[in-house]
């Protein structure tokens, strides 16, 4: 039998902030090359889940293994884990005083993964990939929101991650800029990147996701293919949510 390569293994993950239990019992395996779209109402713990995967939040209980690294082991070298995980946020978090290409080169050079020359060449390739090569020497404040987000994606790719996490990457964009960012994400998915994407872009989910996971109240309520979850949702909470966003 073909052995599937599990990139992310989450078992019985719990996360509380003080008395507030946000993630109550989440288990999920993600295979290499899989694109998982996380849906759920605001406050359901989607961002917290993503942030637990690279220990931006420390899990309260349960196990998370990413690329063979036990993230929930307190002795883990978390920087090693993070090198393999690229993250793109709603707000781009680019350094405004650094040019586009300097933003992208920063991590590989600082972490001594590449020489400056190598990083510059790699960054130009990434900028070409996201259609931003002409803006290499521009500064973030000169860019549109869609352009900034494409640069942020290139920056996240600069460390050669093999997993990419996206937390509502298009939610802060003007509507006319959403498409260009989703297009870059689709291209990444086609290239075989393992991706976990929190988004309300149902069209993207339908077209690109291998699996849709609907979260509510700290649990996974329902999951399946886009066909299953979007066309034939079984749970009342999923139906209610889809009625609001579709
Ligand atoms: P979602 O991304 O699905 O909207 P979040 O993961 O951002 O949900 O938040 C889930 C819940 O956890 C919310 O009630 C939020 O207020 C709370 N929460 C998130 N981060 C923190 C934090 N650092 N401290 C306290 N509460 C938090
Ligand atoms: Mg969120």
UniProtKB/TrEMBL annotation:
SUPFAM superfamilies: P-loop containing nucleoside triphosphate hydrolases. InterPro entries: AAA+_ATPase (IPR003593), ABC_ATPase_HisP-typ (IPR030679), ABC_transporter-like_ATP-bd (IPR003439), ABC_transporter-like_CS (IPR017871), MetN_ABC_transporter-like (IPR050086), P-loop_NTPase (IPR027417). GO terms for molecular function: ABC-type amino acid transporter activity; ATP binding; ATP hydrolysis activity. Keywords: ATP-binding, Nucleotide-binding, Transport. Residues 8-242 form the ABC transporter domain. This is Amino acid ABC transporter ATP-binding protein (PAAT family). It comes from Frisingicoccus caecimuris.
